[in-house]
Every structure is written in C-alpha cells, then in structure tokens.
Amino acid sequence: MVLNFLKPTYCVKSVYDLSVDELKKHSIKAVLTDLDNTLLAWNNPNGTVELHEWLKETREAGIEVIVVSNNTWDRVKKAVGGLEVDYVAWSLKPLPRGILKVLHDRQLKKDEVVMVGDQMLTDVWAAHLAGVPSVLVERLIESDMWQTWINRFIENQAKKIIYKKDGVIFYDSLTDAIEAKKD
C-alpha cells in the first residue's frame, strides 16, 4: 500500500488504555508519547485524574513514560512539570530524531518501546522511520492548536485511502488491538 508509512501498528482510544499488565506482557519498558492531545489536552495543562493515575501505575511498574514532542524545550518543560516524566523537545517528527535519542540514551531495543500519538503525519510516521511500534490514539479533544490544522486535513485524506471500508477502528485495549490485527 502506498501510504503504509502512515498506518499505525495499533489503534487504541487513549494512552490510558495501555494498561501496565499489557505493556509488561509485551515486554514494553518505555512508552514514548506525544504531548498535545495525546497525553494532555493542549488547553488543559494540569491533566486529568485519569492521566495522573495512569502515570503513577506505569511508574510503580517500572515502565518509563517519556514525552517526545515537537514543541520547544520551554513549552514541554512547563507542560510536564508536574507529571514526573522525562521528555525530548524539538524532536522534529516525523523525523525519528527524538525517538532514536531515547533509544540511545536509555539503551532500549526497538521492541521495548511503543510510540503513542494522535497524529499519523508526525507520531506514526516518526515511529515507522525509527523502526518502533506505533499506537495511534484518538485526540483528547476535538480542537487543535492552529499549527495542526493542515496536518489534520492531510491526515483525513490519508485515512480515507488507508481505511477505505470501515474507517479507523480504535480498540479499548492493546490486547484487543493486537488480537484484531491477527485476524
């Protein structure tokens, strides 16, 4: 398929649907995640109770959550300040630079991480270029920062081609997404 580089490995509703048990079952040591509209709604800098619970569970399980963002260092530092997560800013997605930096710095293998994001043109493509599994999630809120609008337009056209018949199907868990992929 022409647009395979934009097709995610898995699709789940939100980053919170990646349970600790499922991540451990698949030997995931680090969840790399986009920031805006994936981990945090861009207009909610404090995050939700659900986010803080998920971060606590992953931390207690020894699974690191690392933000890989195209935003500036100042913006990301401010956004994740109260979340106790590490981050890479100016990652230049869809270039794999930020993902590869995390793999190198943490000495992680490509199958020990997943890259989670709400955009195919940045997050999923970067994961493909880095050779790591990608997890596409629904965006947390419908509105986006203005810079994202053109990506969303292109992405919607790509989705029509990639998911001709049924559209994107978002699963309730990683296990559900993996099982569906086997069928």
Automatic annotation (TrEMBL):
It comes from the Bacteria. Transmembrane segments: none annotated. SUPFAM superfamilies: HAD-like. NCBIfam families: HAD-SF-IIIA (TIGR01662), YqeG_hyp_ppase (TIGR01668). This is HAD superfamily (YqeG). It comes from Fructobacillus fructosus. The lineage of its organism: Bacteria, Bacillati, Bacillota, Bacilli, Lactobacillales.
